[in-house]
Design goal:
Blueprint lengths: L1 H16 L3 H30 L7 E2 L2 E2 H8 L17 E6 L5 H14 L2 E7 L3 H13 L3 E13 L23 E4 L22 E12 L1 H9 L1 H9 L7 H4 L4
Protein name: DNA/RNA-binding protein Alba-like domain-containing protein
Organism: Fistulifera solaris (Oleaginous diatom)
GO molecular function, one term: RNA binding
């Protein structure tokens, strides 16, 4: 009995020392899977440890991305389209009694010798000023570089005047006249002819717009290439100009 048991035990031990090919293959597969899992864990842990704590990526307590965002240039959202130099300019007082073409021609005449001019209008004539500026842009003679809006105080006209006293004119006369002012004075136009108040009257606040236009390079080049037309434009009647004749080539 003892001999048979020993033989059986030795047979089992022999089977364990020499496993079948199927068992050996499964064991190798399990070992490979374990090695791949360990590699993935090691890679993930090393990435988490090195990425946020690198000294070269930190500047003043912030990462490179934060530093770049802080130092990025800011874009101005000012309503002014361009910075206009503080120099005296011709100002065209636009009125509602004439169409925008008349003020377009007047501005075109000024832009022959001046680089910039202003179109100024009170309530009732603002649309004409805007239309005249758009005519200049569509004709490629000038471009709008600034638009200013404000309120100004206007003295009403007196019905009767004291003998010996000259009649009081409105503070701002917008009858197609021309004046030269410093830019930026749209909020400080208080009195051009005096501040006396009429009896029983009161001052009026009216909206005002000032559109600054600048001569284009194409118009300047056209004037240089056509000196005769330049002289005619400077000396001619602004009411008798045909738009197609003065439109420069693009």
């Amino acid at each position: 009995m003892s001999t048979k048991r020993v033989g059986t035990a030795s047979t089992k031990n022999t089977d364990l020392r020499n496993p079948s090919p199927q068992v050996a293959t499964e064991s190798r597969n399990l070992q490979q899977i374990k090695e791949k899992s360990d590699n993935i864990k090691n890679t993930a842990s090393s990435a988490n440890l090195t990425t946020p704590t690198k000294a070269s990526d930190v500047k003043g307590g912030k990462s490179d991305i934060d530093a770049k965002l802080v130092t990025a240039p800011t874009v101005s959202t000012s309503p002014s389209t361009q910075e206009v130099p503080l120099e005296p300019r011709q100002v065209i007082a636009v009125s509602a009694s004439k169409g925008p073409t008349a003020f377009f021609n007047l501005a075109r005449k000024f832009l022959v010798s001046d680089e910039m001019c202003d179109l100024s209008a009170l309530e009732g004539a603002i649309v004409s000023a805007v239309d005249a500026a758009h005519l200049l842009e569509r004709s490629r003679l000038a471009k709008i570089v600034r638009v200013q809006t404000s309120y100004v105080t206007v003295e009403p006209k007196r019905k009767k005047t004291t003998p010996g006293t000259p009649p009081l004119q409105p503070i701002l006369s917008h009858e197609g006249g021309i004046s030269s002012v410093q830019p930026g004075d749209s909020h400080s136009v208080a009195s051009l002819h005096g501040m006396g108040r009429s009896t029983g009257g009161r001052e009026l606040r009216r909206a005002r717009i000032v559109i600054t236009v600048q001569r284009t390079e194409s118009y300047k080049q056209w004037l240089d290439e056509n000196p005769l037309q330049r002289v005619i434009t400077e000396d001619g009647d602004e009411e008798q100009i045909i738009l197609d004749d003065i439109e420069p080539n693009p």
